[in-house]
Amino acid sequence: MLRELVRAADRFRAEGRLPPTAYKVKSPRWIVNLRGGKAYLEGPYARRDIAPTPAPDRQRSGTPSESNLKPYLLADDARYALGKIDPQRPHQAELQHRSFVELLNQAYQETGLAPLRAILDFLTSPEAAVIRDRIDADGLVAFRVDGTDPAENHEVQRFWARYLARELALDHSSYCAVCGEHTHILRILPREVVVLGQKCQITSFNQTAFRSFGKEQTANSPICFACASSAIDALDYMIRTERHHRVLVNNPKGRGLANQLAVFWMKDPLEVRVGEVTYEVEDLLGAVLGVGTGLGQGDPPADLAQLRALLNVPWTGKDVSLTLGDNQFYLAILSANKGRLVVREWFDVSVARLRDSLRTFLDALRMVDPSGTTVSAQTIDTLVLALESEDPNLSRSLLRSAFLGYPPPWEIAEAAVRRFRVAVARQDPALQHRLAAALKLGLVFGKSEEEVRQMEMLDPSRNVRAYLCGRLFAVLEEVQRRAAVGKLNATIADRFYGATAAAPAANLAYLLNRAQTSHLAKIRRERRGHGELEQLIGEVLARIHELGGFPKTLTLPEQAEFALGFYHQRVQFRAKGGQTSNLKVEGAVAP
After folding, report:
1. Could you say which of 150, 180, 313, 366 is the most buried, measured as most Cβ atoms within 10 Å of its Cβ?
2. Nearest CA-CA partner of 72 in 141, 145, 169, 4
3. pTM above 0.85?
4. Distance CA 58, CA 73 (A)
5. Nearby residues of 578 by Cβ (< 8 Å), 6 or more positions away
6. With contact defined as beta carbons under 8 Å apart, do 563 and 501 qualify?
7. What is the per-residue DSSP string for 319-341?
8. 24: part of which helix (H) or strand (E)?
9. Complete DSSP assignment for 43-94
10. Which residues contact residue 560 at a Cβ distance below 8 angstroms, ignoring those fewer than 6 apart?
11. Which 3 state secondary structure label does DSSP give 33?
12. Which InterPro entries is this protein grouped with (predicted)?
């Protein structure tokens, strides 16, 4: 993964997306502009008022002391940049400012750049004291010389990289585990990445068992400055960029390991033309993980419909800008745990295999919505939320199915079966739609295209006893609805769904008898579509009888069939509209 992150950094730098090595995009609160021998203070700026710019950055923690001074070059808070005294820590400002000046002077000595000399002269002038009194201690202070940011100078950027490489390196050489070069390796990593609000090191060791031959810190996983900086810069960029990440789980009350962030990218950008439209595949791949917020101002988020349309057209040499066999897709599932980066999953898959896997996955998830008007798939994050499973491996299993083509484990459909039994879940149309999609994924993934397509909505030809029992249960509920007409506090689904799905023979016979004696006669008398319902009951009963009658019990896979039959038949009633849409039923359960 680190090797691919380093390669990704090369790609992003070539595309102009990454800041210089060991730089980070920051928004200064104050700008000291030196022009014509005078100093002008600009600010205070709020984040929304000023465009962020790349500035030198490094890892900094702990209380500042003689042995722990880590100033940022040219842009730091006012305690470092101007010696502003913090009332909470008055004795630290002198140390911090001295280290800032020493670093700046070292940069000037190595580069000889006049703007650095101008800043050094300003810091010893009376004007610095005047400006120091006007600003707060915490605000980030940056400098401009004649309107130019000296941090943008390539000589300054090269100095900062050399300086950090020297300061963070061990006193001996070794082979870098990423590039294989025999060079100086790092003692401390240049900086952290922020995963779901937690600062993390990309490598760390929390047990002595992970160490070898008495080595300490990063020496146990030797990596040179160039590789470490590139890997961190690439990962940090993707975590901050909508195109390359999605949050799968982020529960503020959950444990660190329960929350998960997906980061993904391609080896090379890939464009596919569909008619007159050219799609960047990388922009659309995040749609299967979750709905984003858009790639930029005014850009709508990529959705599953666009992705599926793209997957369903042939990617011929005429339409594809690069050879699929030479391109790779990478995905990492990350969690943060007490300052450590946890890689929960790592995929490295060819784009050709990725395309086939995604198409199979999305087709298996397509399901008619509760109103019966559209057929659509679900994103992985909505499935995870709908299933409410505490198993952290569930989302990983869905990712393996989506991106690698692995069959989904039965635990996914099992979780959907259990959630479907809950009345509250069946009363939420959106949740019911997602659970039905998860059930279908478990039942038909990898089966024939015809069966996958037929199970998107009611399949009148499906001769599976459990499926037919689910349909019959939905018909009996519809009979009850039409007979009640506004006087219904709870349907038979609210009272009998769980028992009937587990043991159809013991409950369907009773419910059939009650429908015949209590409801159908009233529907017939009031002409509420009794003919259609009686015919439907007769057809379904006849097919169940041919298959051996009501099953005494159903296994969990059979209960998944029952749930889908029930859902499909309910949607069928709702799609017809007129016959049930005018009913006003208290406590009605929306299909």
Report:
1. 150
2. 141
3. no
4. 10
5. none
6. yes
7. TBSS-GGG-EEEEEEEEEETTEE
8. strand 23-26
9. -PPPGGGS--EEEE-----S--BTTB--PPSSEEEHHHHT-PPBTTBTTTHH
10. 413, 416, 417, 439, 442, 443
11. strand
12. CRISPR-assoc_prot_Csd1-typ (IPR010144)
Cis peptide before 44 (omega within 30 of 0): yes
pLDDT tens digits, 482-496: 888 766 778 888 889
Q: Which of 379, 341, 375, 344 is nearest to 361 (CA)?
A: 379
Q: Encoding tokens for residue 61?
A: 């923690």
DSSP assignment of 488-538: -SS-HHHHHHHHHHH-HHHHHHHHHHHIIIIIHHHHHHHTSSHHHHHHHHH
- In percent, the amount of the chain with pLDDT more than 90 equals 52
Tokens of 158: 């090269």
**Phi and psi of 183, rounded to 5°?**
-155, 180
Residue 9 has which token pair? 């950094």
List pLDDT tens digits, range 76-124: 999 999 999 988 888 888 999 999 999 999 999 999 999 999 999 999 9
pLDDT at 320: 52
Q: Which helix (H) or strand (E) holds 381?
A: helix 380-387
Q: Classify residue 388 by its DSSP letter.
A: T
Q: Position 535: which residue type?
A: Q
- Per-residue b or e along 174-200, where b marks 16 or more CB atoms closer than 10 Å to that residue's CB: bebbbeeeebbbbebbbbbbebbebeb
CB atoms within 10 A of CB 429: 16
Average confidence (pLDDT) over 214-234: 86
In whole angstroms, what is the distance from residue 372 CA to residue 184 CA?
64
Main-chain phi, psi angles of 250, to 5 degrees:
-145, 80
Indicate the residue type of 30: W
Contact yes or no for 467/562 (Cβ under 8 A): yes
pLDDT for 436 equals: 95
